[in-house]
Amino acid sequence: MFFRHHTDKLLIPVGLVIVLFVTSYRAKYHLRSEMPPAFFEQDQQSRKPSLDQKIAWAYWESALMNVQWKYPYSHPLPLDPPAEFQVDAKALGPMASDPATRMLYWHHLQRVWYLPETWQKDYGWDFSWLGDPMTSGADWLRNAANRLFRVR
Question: What pTM did the predictor assign?
């Protein structure tokens, strides 16, 4: 049996606010700003950055600025690079925007995409789930199930 008390008017809203804040403090993943070593194997003999290294950095920055927001953490990358994955040919020369070079660095990105050292995990407030709570709840359940039943 439920008995109503005068304190219910205070406890229920406080409880709802606590639940709101607990569900809104989440982990967010983003690519690290430093390029992973597997993305570009550097020649240890030269100290001066080569043109290839500058091109690799440009493609890594393109992944940071454009790709990670379109294909977030744990989502697979498509076989072909998206239109957003490109560099400025004026700054680095025509070789940088060559389709073969672009595809090479896209394959490099696919290779490092799932490595844990590629991603950085930060905690913060995220109220975006309020826009579509059903989809956000389903994503939360899927991630929780993946953590609980992960095959090791």
Answer: 0.70
How many domains does the chain divide into?
1
Q: In terms of pLDDT, which residue wins out, 63 or 147?
A: 63
User: Which structural domain, as residue segments, surrounds residue 91?
Assistant: 32-40+48-123
Residue 3 lies in a domain: no
Residue-level length of the chain: 152
Mean of the pLDDT values across residues 130-148?
80
Contact 86, 102 (CB under 8 A): yes
Burial of 62 (0-12, 13-18, 19+ CB in 10 A): buried
Residues 6+ apart with CB under 8 A from 2: none
Please report, in angstroms and rounded to a whole number, the separation of the first and last CA atoms in the chain.
46
